[in-house]
Amino acid sequence: MREGTSKVIYRADYQPPAFWIDTVELVFDLDPAKTRVLNRMRVRRNPDVMPQPLRLDGEELNLARVLVGGQGTSFKMEEGQLVLENLPEGNEPFELEIFTTCAPAKNTKLMGLYVSNDSFFTQCEAEGFRRITYFLDRPDVMASYTVTLRADKRKYPVLLSNGNLVAQGDLEDGRHYAKWVDPFRKPSYLFALVAGQLVCREQRISARSGRDHLLQVYVRPGDLDKTEHAMNSLMASVAWDEARFGLELDLERFMIVATSDFNMGAMENKGLNIFNTKYVLANQATATDTDYGNIESVVGHEYFHNWTGNRVTCRDWFQLSLKEGLTVFRDQEFSQDLAGDVSARAVKRIEDVRVLRTAQFPEDAGPMAHPVRPDQYLEINNFYTVTVYEKGAEVVRMMQALVGREGFAKGLSLYFQRHDGHAVTCDDFAQAIAEANPDSQLAQRLEQFRRWYSQAGTPRVRVQTHFDAVSGIYSLTLTQSCGATPGQPDKQPFVIPIALGLLDAEGRELTSGMHVLTQAAETLTFPGYSAEPVPSLLRGFSAPVILEYDYSDRQLLTLLANDTDPFNRWEAAQRLATGRALTYIRGDLPVELDAPYVEAMRTVLRHPALDAAFKELVLTLPAETYIAEQLDVVDPQRIHAVREAMRQQLSQALYADWEWAYEAHKDSGAYRPDPVSSGRRALAGLALAHLCLAARTSGDNVWPGKAYQRFKDASNMTDRFNALAALVISGHELAAQALQRFHAMFRNEPLVLDKWFALQAGAPDRNGNVLPVVKQLMQHPDFNIRNPNRARSVIFSYCSANPGGFHRADAAGYVYWSERVMELDAINPQVAARLARALDRWKKLAEPLRGAAREAIARVAAKPDLSNDVREVVTRALAD
Question: Which fold has domain 1-195?
Answer without folding.
Answer: Immunoglobulin-like (2.60.40)
